[in-house]
Write a structure and sequence with these properties.
The structure holds 2 protein chains of 2 kinds. Chain A is α+β, with helices and mostly antiparallel strands. Helix content of chain A is about 25%, strand content about 35%. The two termini of chain B are about 50 Å apart. The chains are: A alpha+beta, B mainly alpha.
Chain lengths: ~350, ~575
């Protein structure tokens, strides 16, 4: 039995359907991210799980028990969940220890027990020395740690995080990603994490549910999303890619002016014959100054550099394929310098290509 | 570990089954509260207004429909003239107030003028001083025969005529303006505070000097605020009762409010008064709407709040000129009227001036120990204002919470009703309350209940604006964080929201208390013999013409006000009364 199950979950505000029939199941101890652009319905979904919003259709079950359905919503305070908010929502009128102890006191634990657990969890998030401080005296990252401690200390059935890192600066955000994952590895709390930042989702999650326009496009492990995207949206949203119009004939993928062998390309088995969309990651194309000696049966095409941008960690080349009109963006290591206008040979690696809907 | 070692109550059956009973249980108590609040607002705001309108079309006694009241109200030249007088007075007063306040606001907000704290104090003092006290002070200063300023003028120049007669149209306008200019100051200063120095820098770099930049850039940017303040002073003036009654009646200047008062002299003609009050109401509603329109115009930086760097403009020697202006306003608005009032309150005969043999505590002793109404009125004022402030803030907080959290559909209707009294002049509201609740079945005339209800309704918008701001400052996630950790809505409000809005609410309570404690124009229509407030008693004393007793009572009123303003400044912050709402 899944710990948390969403079935056909739908929410409309007026005529605008924000969440449109979402199905998702979380196993005990699983960490799932809802990843998508702003307005895709991910936060609404999370707030429905928390019980702050009533669905228009569908249901939510916790350990097989229905906790949300139209007309009947178990209030948030009775869901055994906890949540970390975008604004942290650390209560400024209470000290760090009082903030963290709030949920424990509500559970009528003896004072000594509350004190012990608060101390333990604050040590876990490295905030033990600041227990007596008020939130106004803390930095953003420290407030974030307090929010984490406050949510984890009650040992919730499900932990919900609503874009918790969006108010932090870049360095701190990276550090807190690992912190969140570390805490999950330690406590194995079933977690739903909402974010629009794919790096955050990839660093923390067991699986990622990519959302677009109120629907889930694909649920997969991070590396599968990247290498085997199933939809045009996922291919474009997770990492950069070249999306090329193509024709599938047999197991050959025809592009403008050339063709690829379909062997090894993701999604080829399920794709229909005829017009298809091919996602080619910039990393899946190698650039060579001269025709490579051994191509291992891979497709090699002549082309020319049309433009380039140096990004420090890599070169971002715009390459024109000699035959036809096709232009590709290709990533190359910083040491591989090609001048604009120089001829190159493109070696295609089917590993990071996918046919998408 | 993931297995919940700490159990919360298990989900109840209602959560699982969607029976009709389950649905009934999901009617949050807040819906009931909404109904109660609507009823309270209808009682406090809508019914008195509707009754006012209805009564204006009724024949006295029989209640039959008639237009005769309007005929009576506007059938005599004297009555029409009063309306024109009010409008003229409003325009002149508002103009003087703008002239007084704009240089002060610019100086405090944008320049390196010295004595900014002092200027603040002047504005606050002028704002806090009840207007009718200022009027009494000015009678002592500029009465045509024995006013101190005129005496000094005659002594210095040997002239026969007085320098300035307070019993005149100009005198009336000046006295009101000297009390109401803080409204313009607050508006303009808060707008100027949002103008980035870069705006002026941009003008400077193109060749404009300080003076040109101020005239062509800074002031035009805040002109909607100047107009907004102008409109507010205009409305305040035409709705004012105390000063026109104290200065205007002896000067034979009749305005709308004093004319309304005459309709209430025996025999009371409330129907005619209601009809006569309609233009006042319509003008106020129209101008407030116009003011909102002007202030919400896009394209003015004053609306964006994006600051950028702000540096005070260096004025050089000019800054002393500006300081002189501020000090002069302070002298005439606060210092001189207060001084003569204090002098008079301790004098055997105020005209003899400040000499040792003229000093006495006679009048304070009379008021504190012998006068039959003085102490009663002090007590009345404190408890009426206290109860009204508590009711207004309580009601406003509930409404603000429901509206801010969107707990019920059409919550905005509540907010609209709560803000509606803002566009109703106090004197009009008083007539509405009189018409609605003075006669049977409630028969509340002269009772404390009626005055408290009228005060509550009248100052509800202040409390509501305050509560809304307080609620807006508390992120809804603060409360949600408590709920997801297992606390119910009420528990979350008590332990999280309430502590966070406590201070702001205290400020709101004190503001309502202070303005209610000096309220005259509504109270004067509603009090009975045993429910006189200090302001009404002060007005009665002014009619009797004994200035020494009057001044002593004014002193007592002022001390009480100062105590509460002091408490507010201590607990809530220095400028808690002067924030633009």
């Amino acid at each position: 039995m899944s710990r948390l199950q969403l079935r056909g979950l739908t929410k409309a505000f007026g005529t605008l359907t924000v969440v449109d029939g979402i199905d998702l199941a979380l196993e005990q101890g699983e960490f799932i991210s809802l990843l998508g652009p702003s307005g895709c319905g991910k936060t609404t979904t999370l707030r429905m799980i928390a019980g702050f919003i009533e669905p228009n259709a569908g249901s939510i079950e916790l350990d097989g028990e229905r906790i949300s359905s139209p007309g009947s919503v178990l209030p948030p305070e009775r869901r055994r969940m906890s949540m970390i908010f975008q604004s942290y929502a650390i209560w400024p009128n209470m000290t760090v220890a009082e903030n963290v102890g709030f949920g424990l006191k509500l559970r009528k634990l003896p004072a000594a027990e509350v004190k012990r657990r608060v101390r333990e969890i604050l040590d876990v998030v490295q905030m033990g020395h600041l227990a007596g401080r008020y939130p106004a005296e803390l930095s953003g990252g420290q407030q974030q740690r307090v929010a984490l401690a406050r949510a984890i200390v009650v040992k919730p059935a499900v932990l919900l995080l609503d874009e918790p890192l969006s108010n932090l600066d870049a360095n701190l955000r990276e550090e807190m990603r690992f912190e969140i994952r570390r805490l999950h590895d330690e406590f194995r709390i079933t977690t739903v994490y909402v974010t629009h930042d794919q790096a955050e989702a990839m660093a923390t999650s067991d699986r990622i549910a990519v959302m677009n326009a109120g629907r889930i496009e694909q649920v997969d492990a991070p590396h599968m999303l990247y290498t085997r995207p199933r939809t045009r949206f996922v291919a474009g949203f997770v990492g950069r890619t070249n999306l090329l119009d193509a024709q599938l004939r047999g197991d050959e993928i025809g592009l403008a002016g050339f063709a690829l062998r379909g062997e090894g390309v993701a999604g080829i088995a399920e794709a229909r014959q005829g017009p298809v969309l091919l996602s080619v990651r910039p990393q899946s194309v190698r650039l060579h100054r001269a025709p490579p000696g051994t191509a291992d049966g891979r497709l090699v095409l002549p082309g020319g550099i049309a433009g380039r941008v140096y990004l420090g960690e890599a070169w971002d080349y715009q390459v024109r394929v000699a035959e036809g009109e096709q232009q590709l963006r290709v990533a190359a290591p910083p040491s591989q310098v090609h001048e604009v206008g120089a001829p190159v040979w493109l070696g295609f690696d089917p590993e990071q290509m996918a046919l998408v809907e | 570990m993931p297995d919940t070692t700490i159990a919360l109550r298990e989900p109840g059956p209602a959560a699982r089954r969607t029976t009709w009973f389950g649905r009934l249980r999901h009617v949050e108590p807040v819906t009931l509260l909404w109904a109660v609040l609507i009823a309270a607002l209808l009682f406090l705001v809508a019914f008195p207004l509707l009754k006012l309108l209805a009564v204006s079309f009724e024949t006295q006694g029989s209640g039959a429909f008639t237009l005769a009241n309007y005929g009576t109200a506007y059938g005599r030249a004297r009555y029409v003239e009063a309306l024109l007088n009010s409008l003229t007075l409003g325009l002149i007063t508002a103009t003087i107030a703008v002239v007084l306040a704009v240089p002060m606001a610019w100086a405090v907000s944008r320049t390196d003028m010295p004595g900014k704290g002092f200027t603040w104090a002047v504005v606050l003092a002028a704002f806090v001083m009840p207007p009718y006290l200022g009027a009494v002070g000015w009678i002592l200063l500029a009465g045509p025969n024995s006013g101190f300023l005129n005496l000094a003028w005659r002594w210095a120049t040997g002239a026969e005529d007085p320098l300035f007669d307070v019993y005149s149209f100009a005198g009336l306008a000046l006295v009101i303006a000297l009390h109401s200019f803080p409204l313009v100051f607050i508006f303009v200063k808060s707008a100027l505070d949002l103008v980035s120095s870069e705006m002026e820098d941009a003008a400077n770099i193109l060749g404009a000097g300080t003076w040109t930049a101020m005239r062509k850039v800074s002031l035009p940017l805040v002109w909607p605020s100047i107009l907004g303040g102008f409109i507010l002073v205009f409305l305040e003036t035409i709705a004012l009762f105390g000063t026109p009654a104290i200065i205007g009646i002896p000067a034979r200047i009749n305005v709308v409010t004093t004319q309304l008062w005459q309709f209430f002299e025996y025999p009371v003609r409330v129907e005619v008064a209601a009809a006569y009050a309609m233009p006042l109401l319509l003008i106020t509603v129209g101008l407030i709407a116009a003011q909102r329109l002007v202030l919400s115009r896009k394209g003015f930086v004053s609306q964006t709040g994006k600051g950028g760097e702000r540096r005070p403009i260096r004025l050089g020697p000019w800054r002393w000129l500006l300081f002189g202006w501020c000090a002069g306003v302070g002298l005439f608005a606060v210092a001189l009227p207060l001084l003569v009032l204090i002098q008079a309150s301790f004098a055997k005969a105020w005209g003899r001036g400040l000499t040792l043999d003229n000093l006495t505590l006679r009048d304070y002793r009379l008021l504190l120990f012998e006068h039959e109404m003085a102490l009663t009125s002090v007590w009345n004022t404190i408890w009426f204002s206290g109860v009204a402030a508590t009711l207004a803030v309580g009601l406003a907080l509930l409404i603000a919470y429901i509206v801010a959290r969107k707990l019920v559909p059409f919550g905005e209707a509540l907010g609209f009703l709560a803000m509606a009294p803002f566009v109703i002049p106090g004197i009009v509201m008083a007539i509405g309350f009189y018409a609605a609740y003075a006669p049977p079945p409630l028969a509340l005339y002269g009772t404390a209940t009626l005055i408290i209800l009228a005060f509550t309704a009248r100052f509800l918008p202040i409390a509501y604006a305050n509560s809304t701001a307080a609620m807006r400052a508390v992120h809804p996630e603060m409360e949600e964080a408590a709920r997801i950790l297992g606390s119910g809505r009420l528990h979350a409000i008590r332990h999280v929201t309430a502590p966070l809005v406590k201070k702001a609410l205290l400020g709101g309570w004190l503001i309502v208390f202070i303005v209610a404690s000096r309220e005259l124009s509504a109270a004067v229509f509603l009090v009975g013999p045993r429910t006189r407030t200090m302001s009404v008693l002060l007005y009665d004393l002014s009619e009797a013409g004994n200035f020494e007793v009057l001044a002593a009572f004014g002193g007592i009123l002022l001390v009480i006000t100062m105590v509460f303003v002091g408490i507010g400044m201590k607990l809530v912050g220095r400028d808690f009364m002067l924030r633009r709402t």
